[in-house]
Design goal:
The protein has helices spanning 2-61, 77-86, 98-115, 133-141, 144-154, 158-189, 194-201, 210-213, 215-228, 240-243, 253-278, 303-320, 322-328, 336-364. By secondary structure, the protein is mostly helical. Helix 5 (144-154) packs antiparallel against helix 6. It contains 14 helices and no strands. The protein starts with a helix and ends with a helix. One of its GO terms (cellular component) is chloroplast thylakoid membrane.
């Protein structure tokens, strides 16, 4: 009887410790999941804002009204379109490869979503501050064309397959100049980390932006990122007049919606990297003696400063987004031979020359 009482007492003493350990495990899992879900929620809202902005700006350029019925000022129109695609029927090609057909859109979206993990939205506000941040983005973004090619091949449609091949050729052609521009920035900042690149620009304020130190690289990066996002004048993989709808021809419902989301996710991540690499990131970039002390966003542990940094990053990003949106209604579409000639015969040699010039200046400054 005494032994039984002792055993019961020991079990009761052990139980609180086991509960405490389980609570610590749950707390650790929550601290991992909350930033990820918060980032995904923020990205989703950002994409909805981009869709609304593009429709409003496009309507203004073409002197149309634009969305105005779904919600105030039509801000819920993109959400209504997403709900509509969610409830539409998913059709599968009768003779296509169902696995490739289904996996393709997922690869395109997931590869772009992973790129957001290395983007610093503010001081110490980055999901993963890696020492090879910009090159991880390039490596991950190189996987997206594989999903497009799988989609085109799995559709068992010649037009879709041709669209997938065009998307792959276009991506390969413009990834090389883009990578050389990123390499020039990392050499200039002495680090491929996205956080270190922003910090290197903050030393000289507005005039320390890489936009002024790498103007040729900025133009090449802008052109290459438009081609990577398949935006006009580089939207050949989904040119309606030539290829019906490219690799998206056989898609419907939520799978088509994934391609639609992927294009805007890619546009947003490209604009964020332009902000980080060339526009000073989260830094206010004006003389600090004219700003109250509580606007100092470079002090760690300040919630208000972090929020200000995030707002500055997003403001620069969305101001830059006006360029690709306006370009869509300004420039005509290139032919396939013109697109490849621009990438291989012009942008590649110029970006290589820019890299060699940057390397020479860095060596002379040592």
């Amino acid at each position: 009887m005494i032994k039984t009482i002792m055993d019961t007492t020991e079990i009761q003493a052990i139980n609180p410790f086991s509960r405490l350990e389980s609570l610590k495990v749950i707390d650790g899992i929550l601290w991992i999941l909350v930033p990820i879900f918060g980032l995904v929620l923020g990205i989703t809202i950002g994409v909805l804002v981009i869709v609304w902005l593009e429709r409003e700006i496009s309507a203004g350029i073409q002197q149309r009204i634009g969305p105005e019925y779904a919600g105030p000022l039509g801000i819920l129109q993109a959400l209504a379109d997403g709900v509509k695609l969610l409830f539409k029927e998913n059709l599968l090609p009768s003779r296509g490869d169902a696995r490739l057909f289904s996996i393709g859109p997922s690869i395109a979206v997931i590869s772009i979503l992973l790129s957001y993990s290395v983007i610093p939205f503010g001081y110490h506000f980055v999901l993963s501050d890696l020492t090879i941040g910009v090159f991880l983005w390039i490596a991950i973004s190189s996987v997206a064309p594989v999903g497009l090619l799988m989609s085109g091949y799995g559709s068992n449609n010649k037009y879709s397959f041709l669209g997938g091949l065009r998307a792959t050729a276009q991506s390969i052609s413009y990834e090389i100049p883009l990578t050389l521009c990123v390499l020039s920035i990392s050499l200039l900042s002495n680090s491929p980390s996205t956080v270190d690149i922003v910090e290197a620009q903050s030393k000289y304020g507005f005039w320390g932006w890489n936009l002024w130190r790498q103007p040729i690289g900025f133009i090449i990066f802008l052109s290459s990122s438009l081609a990577e996002c398949e935006r006009l004048p580089f939207d050949l993989p989904e040119a309606e007049e030539e290829l019906v709808a490219g690799y998206q021809t056989e898609y419907s419902g939520i799978k088509f919606g994934l391609f639609y989301v992927a294009s805007y996710l890619n546009l947003l991540v490209s604009s964020l990297f332009v902000t980080v690499l060339y526009l000073g990131g989260w830094n206010l970039s004006i003389a600090y003696e004219f700003i109250p002390k509580f606007f100092d966003i470079n002090k760690a542990g300040k919630v208000f400063g972090t929020i200000i940094g995030i707002l500055i990053t997003l403001a620069k990003t969305y101001l830059f987004l006006f360029i690709p949106i306006a370009t869509r209604w300004t420039l005509p579409r290139l032919r396939m031979d013109q697109l490849l000639s621009l990438g291989w015969k012009f942008l590649l040699p110029i970006s290589l020359g820019n890299l060699l010039l940057t390397t020479s200046f860095q060596l002379l400054s040592l």
